[in-house]
Amino acid sequence: xxxxxxxxxxxxxxxxxxxxxxxxxxxxxxxxxxxxxxxxxxxxxxxxxxxxxxxxxxxxxxxxxxxxxxxxxxxxxxxxxxxxxxxxxxxxxxxxxxxxxxxxxxxxxxxxxxxxxxxxxxxxxxxxxxxxxxxxxxxxxxxxxxxxxxxxxxxxxxxxxxxxxxxxxxxxxxxxxxxxxxxxxxxxxxxxxxxxxxxxxxxxxxxxxxxxxxxxxxxxxxxxxxxxxxxxxxxxxxxxxxxxxxxxxxxxxxxxxxxxxxxxxxxxxxx
Length: 271
Prior knowledge:
With about 270 residues, this protein is α/β, with parallel strands linked by helices. It has a five-stranded mixed barrel. It has helices spanning about 5-15, 90-100, 160-175, 195-205, 215-220, 245-270, and strands spanning about 25, 40-45, 65-70, 70-80, 105-115, 125-135, 180-185, 205-210, 225-235. The two termini are about 30 Å apart. Helix 2 (about 90-100) packs across helix 5 (about 215-220) and helix 3 crosses helix 6. The chain has a single domain, classed as 3-Layer(aba) Sandwich (Rossmann fold), CATH 3.40.50.1580. Strand 7 (about 180-185), helix 4 and strand 8 (about 205-210) form a beta-alpha-beta unit. It comes from Flagellimonas ochracea. Belongs to the PNP/MTAP phosphorylase family.
């Protein structure tokens, strides 16, 4: 990754009409309905944006969408990138750097995850308070990282406290049940074994997924306030573990997404 590549990506989008968005939003697996709320939208397909990776997962659409939500300018990633697709950490986080260079001031991230905390149920939404990086690497571990920001990044509060408090207040006002907890990020694409679920619980994880942490690390590198929520699509009880049905996971994510949209819309209005 070079500054020249970033400049070319950003220039392409600016010429398409992506004009200083205030908010960046990353949509997770099965979470695409938010784009229906975007007014006056402009779409850029990933395969047309210089140096952008391509989404290879069948249920990720691969579009960057610019427009307005609640009167505020937003840029939305419909389809993200994962280690399990064969991408590296720089590929995965490249779009965050592009959105930052376009001008976003806040970053919202969503994902679909499994509930490790057995007090949480499928269909719940979890506000991520902290994370455990089990992906075996960092998006900041490259030679010229200091040209893009400080090499050593503080992670004592990676998820913006002020925005988290706003999300909690919005959830209370809208009657949305909101869990809070720690998200563990693994490589995938295979799901976890019973022993691995037990390990994750011992480590202190409340939910597990295959994304989000690299983007959050880069957001902190860029000093970009970030908030993230998990839509919990399955219950990871090692003593009563049933085979995973991916189609069911997507369906639960889709059913729960309207609650997540309420939170993100409210956050945009309140920020």
